[in-house]
Amino acid sequence: MNKMSKACNIMRLALLQLKGSKDKLANLENACKKIQEAVEKHQPRLITLPECFNSPYGTKYFREYAECIPSGTTSQRLSQLAKECNVYIVGGSIPEFGENDKIYNTCTIWSPEGKLIAKHRKMHLFDIDVKGGMRFKESETLTAGNEFTIIEIDDHKIGIGICYDIRFEEMARVYRNAGCEMIIYPAAFNMTTGPLHWELLQRSRANDNQLYVVTTSPARDETAEYVAYGHSMVVNPWAKIIQSAKEGEETVIADVDFSMVEQARQQIPISYQRRLDLYETVKKC
């Protein structure tokens, strides 16, 4: 039986930090194998995968590796595994063939019945030019999504973002205002921004909104064209890191206590002390 006790408000998570390659089917089968292993060994309620887990991360690859959702091979396998393993799967992200020949960076979320309960299209595209660091423009290939995504598991609301979305506090604030107790960000920070901001941003979003922040990164591969930073992480509502991976392929297990969300919000009641007469995040989900 999957680990979720309503009495004690504990949910077990498994974060799969996976090493990828240019072999799409091999990437998918590795993810499926790790899902099965995590379920057999740890019985999680929720499993999360990395950003672009079935493809290399790069603008020249997105269209080549893109699939339709939910009819594509990756969606079908995740649906099958979620049902067989009786687990929720936040399917990292994959390049998605959308309407009008558009390509999106999309996270799919699957129920223990194998149903697609939501999908999140990355809202903020990673277009940066760091002097002496790196240049990357997702908008050369991808289209930005326009919808907030909230799922509900065992009466707990969870917001979904993808990678660069984590830099935008307003987006996290919308999720907080909608009652979310956790935000999950599949993410592939690089070796320029990772050491500077990876931990900082997660702890900041958790602290700002008094909720759990969960990130799942690809494992680091120094031979890849885009080198991911790694360090998949779970941060609690007090901005404390409760679990973190290292650089390589790894499964991170964390038991999340949702009662800590209300505890933090009661003891430091910033949601009631905000000067809404002066400022407000007004967007609604």
Structural commentary:
The chain is of the alpha+beta class and 285 residues long. The chain is built from 7 helices and 16 strands. Strands 1, 2, 3, 4, 5, 6, 7 and 16 form an 8-stranded mixed beta sheet that branches. Strand 2 (10-17), helix 1 and strand 3 form a beta-alpha-beta unit. Helix 1 runs parallel beside helix 3 (73-85). The protein starts with a strand and ends in a 12-residue tail after the last helix. The mean pLDDT is 94. InterPro entries: C-N_Hydrolase, C-N_Hydrolase_sf, Nit1/2_C-N_Hydrolase. One of its GO terms (molecular function) is omega-amidase activity. This is omega-amidase. One of its GO terms (biological process) is oxaloacetate metabolic process.
